[in-house]
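Re: weekly structure request thread

Next one in the queue (651 aa):
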Amino acid sequence: MPQLFLLANLVIMVSYAAIMVSIVVPVHRARQLGSNKLATATAMIFFSCAVGHGLHAVMAWQMLRTLDDLHGHGEPGWSSASAVWDACTAAVGIYYWSLRRGYGVLLQKGAIYVDPWGQWRLNEADARERAARDLAEAHQATLATIVEDSADAIIGLTPDGTITAWNGGAERIFGWAAAEVLALPAAVLAGSEGTAQQADMLARMRAGEGSFSYEGRRLRKDGSTVDVAFTVTPVTDPGGTVIGVSVIARDVSAEKEAAERQRAIQERSDQAKRMESLGNLAGGVAHDFNNILAIIANYTDFVIEETRELPHVQADLAHVRTAVDRATSLTRQLLTFTRGDAVQLRDVDLNASIAEVQAVLQRTIGEHITLIGVPAPEPVSVRADPGQVHQILLNLAINARDAMPDGGTLVLEANVAALDGDELNMQPPLPAGTYARLLVSDTGEGMAPDTAARIFEPFFTTKPRGRGTGLGLATVYGIVAEAGGSINVYSELGVGTTFRIYLPISAATGAAPAATRGESPPHGDGQTVLVVEDEVPLARIITRILTDGGYRVRTAGDGAEGLRVFQEHGCDLLLTDVIMPEMTGPKLAELARRERPELPVLFMSGYSNGLLGTTHVIDDGIAFIEKPFTSGDLLHKVAATLHMTSVMDDR
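Done, posted below.
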């Protein structure tokens, strides 16, 4: 038995010592001997146990050696030492358990010490957990800030429409503070026209419909209305039951205004294009019509000259000539509408123009209409043809008179106005700047919007058949546009109409001297005139006029024939139509002047010189006569062209 006791204590001692070493070595390497009290205390217990069992082994060894002295003098010493050591071991055990109780458990179940890698992972996991928690809190704070500061209104509602959430955007759009609307029904925002729409939205949400969008008009706190685009989304619990409604509302009033302005600008642009197309059509009609009128007018003049002894024939021809003059005036208005009428530009004082037109109207407009002229405080000059300025005022005044059959007030006014370039209903559009302005206002019947939109179209008229050509306002439009200006009309049924004409201001003043002409044209001295005209009847008339006026005449039906005649026979003056098939008049003149650079050339056309100049068919300053012309007009122009050429040759 002593041998077994010795062996057992040795095994236990070694085991305890090994356990102690397995605890101390890693704890020491981790440098935790001073900090990891629980591990140190555990190592001390196993060290104490190992020492204790070592003492027991020594005692057993001594017992084997001194079997005879088992109760000798050595036993009490070793026995007391063993007892004292066992008491120390018990104290360490108590200390250990107090630490373990305080720790609860070691870092992990069954762990004795904390290894560095495990501690790092635990610290890293703890740090990640704290970072995730901090990030979630920061995200929630950021989201709350975004929601609160959003320009859109973000509103929470219960399924029955009670307001439960209200952000800063809602306060800015609707004017209500959160404290004022929370717990109120959303109907406070709907007004009379939005109540049904709002009720339908809530019903759809309660029925389980998903997110959808719509637009509506809502009320602000001050009673004004606002156009709003809504996006509504149901809020559901885990079971899918709708427990609320999320509403995102955006103020689209500015967007709608911008869209409306863009639509108006597009309509204005389309109107300008339509007017341009109509102008081109009118110009073509006027060209052909002028050729016909030239034939009628001149043959009528021939017959008048030859029938002076027949008064009744003369009276009939006078009516024909009057009709021709009216038709000529009509075509001139058409050409004015196309922005192509030949004009004499000069600086025109609008105050003087108003005074002159007012003087004319005072005698003709009728006593039932009160005529008022309001000049500008300071002289206002524009670069325009004075006759056309008078025509603008007279045409508008006559229309105003016709709109006031029972009497009223007509005001002619001049002033200066500043435009920002974004004005609506300006025909054509004008850039920003300061302009002279003419206003013609009446208190007449006014016009409906659809009528006002068409008044500048040629041949459109609201007057009874036979009382209007439909070219008065088209002519006004053409004059204003040609002068670089614009016109605006405002009218209300039963209230009246105001026309505003904007023209570029001219800094200079003064009028150009008027051209003078003798009573009868000078007689030709037998000069040869080559007439190139594709309208055969008109060519015959021109030949007759020039022959009677003392000139020799050669004719050609087109440009190519005219060039051959010129090359074979020459001429003193080339009189050619501008627009001809295959070869135009300017091209013919160019080819002829290659052979004779000083050749005088006189162009004629049913188009006006201004229109041909804007299309670059002929250059400014070239001798030109506009159809229809009289014999006197033609002879004066031919003589002036020949005289100008001779003067240039003398120089």
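Residues 253-306 form the longest helix (54 residues). The CA atoms of residues 103 and 109 lie 12 Å apart.
Next request, please.
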